[in-house]
Amino acid sequence: MERPITLLRVSLYHPTQSPMAFAKIPSQLQHDASPLLVGRGPEAHIQLQVPCLSRRHLSLEPYREKGSAPLAFCLKSLSRKGCVWVNGLTLRFLEQVPLSIVNRVAFSGIQMVVRVESGASLEALICCFHFSPSPLIYRLQAEETDEWESSPVEQPPWGPGQQAAGHLGFLQEPPQPNPGGRTEIQLQRESADNRLC
């Protein structure tokens, strides 16, 4: 009897919306239980055509927790020149963090949401990819940098005086216009402006 295979549902967004950015990514990828590399190099399993991306930028690494049958995953940063935001945490070169069921990841302008649907198979996993036309992670005045070595102070991914919404951001549908034609974000800004007056 076959054991159910772990499924990773990976949604990707890049603000340029260039078809070349995700041109080398299939809609589905079957992979063994070795680390799954993300980067712009030819050895990357998830190959993104974004110039500021490292050849090996990060990896999704499957492992088995003691006493647990399903595969678990951690995300490891492999880039010396850039940082990776994962669920509100900043990872630098060779730092890693365990993944939960839904994970929000941002790096080099790319937004990625990884959903883990665990199966019992330790030999293989399947990645299904979705390319989003709209942002996956909403942050106020995001300030990502890919050259953190030159920055003396680490900047949070939100603007000064603002709080993070659900750590790095919160996963939601794009704001929908209301009957008056204004989005929820526009209404919130107007409300804040009225309080200041």
UniProtKB/TrEMBL annotation:
Ranges for region Disordered: 148-197
Biological processes per GO annotation: positive regulation of canonical NF-kappaB signal transduction
Superkingdom field: Eukaryota
InterPro entries: FHA_dom, SMAD_FHA_dom_sf, TIFA
One Pfam short name: FHA
Domain FHA residues, every copy: 37-105
Protein's recorded name: TRAF-interacting protein with FHA domain-containing protein B
Organism classification: Eukaryota, Metazoa, Chordata, Craniata, Vertebrata
